[in-house]
Input
Amino acid sequence: MHIDELYRRKRPVFSFEFFPPKTDAGVKSLFRSLEELARLEPDFVSVTCPLDKPRRPLTCELVARIQRELGIEAMAHLVTVLYTREEVQEVLERLRRDEIDNVLALRGDLPEQAPADALRDFPHASDLVQLARSFGFSVGGAAHPERHPDSPDWEVEIAGARAKVEKGCQFLVTQLFFDNADYFAYVDRARAAGIEVPIVAGIMPVTSVGGIRRMAAMNGNRIPDALARELARAEGDDEAVAAAGVAWATRQCEELLARRVPGIHFFTLNRSPATREILTNLRAKGVA
Output
């Protein structure tokens, strides 16, 4: 199924994101989490694309296996950094052979000491969008409610999103955010610029205080004062941190759903408990 059709036919859409593990044991653990989350009947799952180029084929292997063994629609993330056009075409051809219909098209982050031609064939994610659409994929792209670190201002940020849509991007999935006001402000900016595709909210439940602080610093995410205080009180108690993270994400989702967000995309970090609890909470309240 093409995911863009799913957003047209069903609201809200719930999806989960995973990353390729580095070991066989990690893959086994991932599939245990997937089997637990499959009981919640997600509309689709996605698998990220590693920065480490030799590990990127794992993304293709995992989405094919998820779709084949678990019967869940799967979307492959695809980055272009360090790839030639020919290599990207080979990846797209492989995904088509494996009957994968959906791609999240990303430029990807530049690694340290990247060669000068790392973005030779695909300077922007929009270039990949156009190629993937020519292969018949349903194509999504990334959105940045707090602005991409490389964007000097909102005009440049929204122009990049509009370019992806003009090249054929059919839905946008946001990076994580902890303040819904940032998401709604982004949607307002996008709509004012003529971007009409679904803009899906990306939600990451906090499970580690240190981990989320590092991630926020790296990606420029703002941790609201209220959440920072809750995490500070819970720090040192893993169960209390997880409970605070679930409670915050549940409140975020309740407001997003009340305001008719097209979908919620959960960043699972390859674990199931927090995401399972949030979605179960939402369904118990009759909002999901």
In short: The mean pLDDT is 94. Strands lie at 13-18, 44-47, 74-79, 102-106, 138-143, 171-176, 199-203, 263-267. Residues 64 and 99 are 8 Å apart (CA to CA).
